[in-house]
Amino acid sequence: MNRPIYMDYHATTPVDPRVLDAMLPYFREHFGNAASRTHPYGWEAESAVDEARGRIARAIGGSAKEIVLTSGATESNNLAIKGVLEFHRERGNHVITCVTEHRAVLDPCRALEKKGLARVTWLPVDGYGRVDPEAVVAAISPDTVLITVMAANNEIGTLQPIGAIARIAKAKGVLFHSDATQAVGKVPIDAEALGLDLLSFSAHKMYGPKGIGALWVRSRGPRVRLAPQIEGGGHERGLRSGTLNVPGAVGFGRACELARSLLDEESGRLRRLRDRLWEGIAQRVDQVAANGHPLERLPGNLNVSFACVEADSLLMALDRDVALSSGSACTSATLEPSHVLRAIGLRDDLAHGSVRFGLGRQTTEDEVDRVIERVAAEVSRLRALSPFYRPAAGSTVAVGDGA
Ligand code: PMP
Questions:
Q1: DSSP assignment of 68-83
Q2: Atom of ligand 1 lying closest to residue 74 CA
Q3: Residue whose CA is at the smallest distance from ligand 1 atom 16
Q4: Which tens digits make up the pLDDT trace of 82-104?
Q5: Which of 72, 178, 249, 377 has the fewest other C-beta atoms within 10 Å?
Q6: pTM of the full structure
Q7: What is the mean pLDDT of residues 17-26?
Q8: What does the angle CA 202 – CA 78 – CA 260 come to, to the nearest 5 degrees?
Q9: Residue 98 falls in the annotated catalytic set
Q10: Integer Cα distance of 232 and 238 in angstroms
Q11: Which residue's alpha carbon is at the smallest distance from atom 4 of ligand 1?
Q12: From 98, 109, 308, 330, active-site residue
């Protein structure tokens, strides 16, 4: 049986064969515990992790000792947000974040708010999904301890102005964390040059294994302090206890190294394929709009609203041919449209008719062309069944119009 074309690279990515090759010896002969100090098994594991840590740090412009290895970006975000609030309790409890964050940021903020441990300001976004840095300035108060705004949105691909927000945070003496899970390896990110304080990212979004990620924590200028959320053997300089996932760390390191060397070529290729996909769909299907920012966006992301189409029906019709995800991320019980699409001002019916295309390392031009054909055919079949659909000439909405 033919497998569907994979276009859900925001959800996860396959492990690159070069990454797997680097990992395998650390399951077999080099299986030691990196914390074992008394024999070569431990030493080998420790030196492999040290090397990986350097590679992981270089991918985001940090240094090896600033990397705290975690189980993934969800844990990194929890550590950053809860850890900073707990450590700086005497200074205040105000957090500033944004309504289009991933749930791995929204939920820890909500949980702290519910427990009375934080006061949270939820910043709105414009029609492209961008936070206004001036709104960040206006939200800061004397008890603000943390700003957390993502680098790239996982649904609509919009890049946030994190450099501008970092400058504001620095000027006001507030710590700035960014969830860069979708951005690292896709667009250049230099945490040190941007002036960030904390940055979360994850291996499985960049052709590394699942179950490992990192939190970068600034070590100087000044050093960022936070309280551990998992305590035990004092690993990761006391910030995250637990026996290290050595093969995972090695794979993450190799994935970071590859991402750094391939970034320019890969982002250009994905941008061209993404544009080809959008142009192909817009030529064949009327009443479509591309969501997110037209320029400040991830190269491999395209989020499209199809008028008079239920995204879930479209995905179901395509599921043998194309693996996609709905931009609306409906919870079937409530049929709530995506919080991101709602935040950019999309009407509920369009939010329910939105699909996220995620292109990646294995995507080919031929796949893009086949997806265009299949999507166009299924949209027109579904519209023929819709009582609301009226063909209209010249109604394609340009990328980023957000209509
Ligand atoms: N943040 C963003 C923006 C994401 O896209 C994801 C993954 N969907 C996460 C956090 C969570 O990452 P992980 O799966 O590594 O916990």
A1: EEESSHHHHHHHHHHH
A2: 16
A3: 74
A4: 999 999 999 999 999 999 999 99
A5: 377
A6: 0.95
A7: 98
A8: 20
A9: no
A10: 8
A11: 181
A12: 330
